[in-house]
Amino acid sequence: MRPLERDHLFVYAPGFVDPALGPARWFCPYSAQVVGFLGYYPEVRATLELVPIDFARPRAPLVALVGERYQAAPILVLAPGSPDAPDDVHVTAVGPHRVVERTLEILRYLAVTRGVPLPH
């Protein structure tokens, strides 16, 4: 597999069905939060790949990069050479990749590394 050229932000596609909960359609409020942030700051959106994924497992595009354990979204997979995270953002090494898993930490990382206002 070739290295990522840009950071990849995986979010659940809106309107998914969770078979365990019946036929209702859902959206993920955490994915919506990071997508909303990208709407506030389109210049940040232009710096990464936004990858909507299905709710059903396995979440193939994500599993291909970081394995079965890291299938929850949103998740930010950093490209090689991406800036180091600030001290208040936990980054996990997963094979050759680094990931940021928590929504607020994803927002902090993107804000600091892209020079936009921080979440309060």
Structure description:
- Strand 2 (16-17) and strand 3 (25-26) form a beta hairpin.
- The model has no long low-confidence stretch (mean pLDDT 95).
- The chain has 120 residues and is α+β, with helices and mostly antiparallel strands.
- It has 4 helices and 7 strands; from the N terminus they run E-E-E-H-H-E-H-E-E-E-H.
- The protein is globular.
- The strands form 2 sheets. A 5-stranded mixed sheet has the order 4-1-5-7-6, with helices on both faces. A two-stranded antiparallel ribbon has the order 2-3.
- The chain has one domain.
Strand and helix layout:
Elements: E1 7-12, E2 16-17, E3 25-26, H1 29-40, H2 42-45, E4 48-53, H3 60-66, E5 75-78, E6 92-94, E7 97-100, H4 103-114
Parallel strand pairs: 1-4
Antiparallel strand pairs: 1-5, 2-3, 5-7, 6-7
Q: Biggest sheet: strands, sense, closure?
A: 5 strands, mixed
Structural class: alpha+beta
Number of helices: 4
Helix content: 25-40%
- Count the domains: 1
Regions with little confidence, pLDDT below 50 for 5+ residues: none
Return the average pLDDT rounded to an integer.
95
How much strand? Answer: 15-25%
Say how many strands there are.
Answer: 7
As a whole number of angstroms, the C-alpha radius of gyration is 14 Å
Termini distance?
Answer: 38 Å
| Overall spatial form | globular
The topology string of helices and strands comes to EEEHHEHEEEH
Side by side, the strands of the main sheet go: 4-1-5-7-6
